[in-house]
Write a structure and sequence with these properties.
The structure is a homodimer. The first copy, chain A, has one domain: Alpha-Beta Complex (Maf protein). Helix content of chain A is about 35%, strand content about 25%. Chain A is built from seven helices and seven strands. In chain A, strands 1, 2, 3, 4, 5, 6 and 7 form a seven-stranded mixed β-sheet that branches. Chain A is globular, with a radius of gyration of 17 Å. Chains A and B meet through helix 5, strand 7 and helix 7 of A and helix 5, strand 7 and helix 7 of B.
């Protein structure tokens, strides 16, 4: 059974590859702002799960793999009562880090897994996972060096756990793959709910 | 300043590379069993810190980089009152997983960082980190498939967080890089204690 990852995130692809899958990446051009504007009263978990579902179903409608499993995800950082995605520029990332440093946030990732049969969506499983992230306090020099790499600009919450940002995360409570953008244990359970055993999807390495 | 990693672990090297360092790997042939036999009353954290120190100092004495930072680490899983390293064979790994499944363990990693000057050990910093790991309950078929990959045989505690084992870890409480074998935030603090800013060690990517 083929696996399709409906996400442009290189970090999600790396997580899945390291965990034995070899998904085909197909990128959905979902207008995230418009979708979120359409559900103004949604909770953080409803927002990320809606975005994950929109990505997965958009790809399911057009994928060239008629019997695949399609996985869509969306991640945001919930901090200080606010739900944030990628920073808009270096100054935005710096402001956020000044607020995050020494504190905690919740990385929320929505997941939608679709099982296709004969080119149609046959079954759907969705869920979300929340991981608490405890941020370190980078010095001004460390923060300048981190921002200069531009890594924080490309990621939800302006930090990575699996890259340079790992130096500045003291710890987490929850699943680390969820912070990177796709929770492996949740995806395993969603697949099982669709009758798919994840180890059957492992590619020979 | 050059970074030397006194460890044969490919997972530790991957963590450091993903986090911007490009260390030279030098492998110390420390007789771990003999060292542990010499300190029978040591606590788990004393054991891993002693092993980390033995690896780092062995390499420091013979490295060809006279002004390097040398990092040594050692990891074990503390579970059910017992401290375990790598499993001896597939059956040992299976027995352990039957005991671990649905429960928790503590991944303990000892760290020693040595700052060399003119070919001599100038300053020493050491510490340990503990991360609680909550194991999922793989089905018999999933456990068989996991053992067949032989991945659990090469790692302390018979699981990985950054590989195939990630499907079977529900969550952690603590630093994920510590579970993989080297805590980035602790290493950052140990380096700072030696007057080294970690971002100054980042290689151009």
């Amino acid at each position: 059974m083929h696996v399709v990852l409906a996400s442009a995130s290189p970090a999600r692809l790396s997580v899945l590859r390291a965990a034995g899958l070899d998904p085909t990446v197909e990128i959905a051009d979902v207008d995230e702002d418009a979708l979120l504007a359409a559900i103004p009263h949604a909770t953080p978990t409803e927002k990320v799960t809606s975005l994950a579902g929109a990505k997965a179903t958009t790809i399911a409608r057009r994928t060239r793999f008629p019997d695949a499993v399609v996985i869509g995800c969306d991640s945001m950082l919930h901090i200080g009562g606010e739900l944030v995605g990628k920073p808009v520029d270096v100054e935005d990332a710096r402001r956020r880090w000044r607020r995050m440093a020494g504190g905690t946030g919740e990385l929320v990732t929505g997941h939608t897994v679709l099982r296709m049969a004969d080119g149609k969506i046959d079954r759907v499983a969705e869920g979300h996972a929340v991981t608490v992230v405890r941020f370190a306090e980078p010095t001004d020099a460390e923060l300048d060096a981190y921002l200069a790499t531009r890594e924080p600009l490309g990621v939800a919450g302006a930090f990575t756990l699996d890259g340079l940002g790992g130096w500045f995360v003291e710890g987490i409570d929850g699943d680390p793959s969820n912070v990177i953008g796709i929770s492996l244990p949740l995806t395993r359970r969603l697949l099982a709910g669709l009758g798919v055993t994840v180890t059957d999807l492992w590619s020979p390495s």
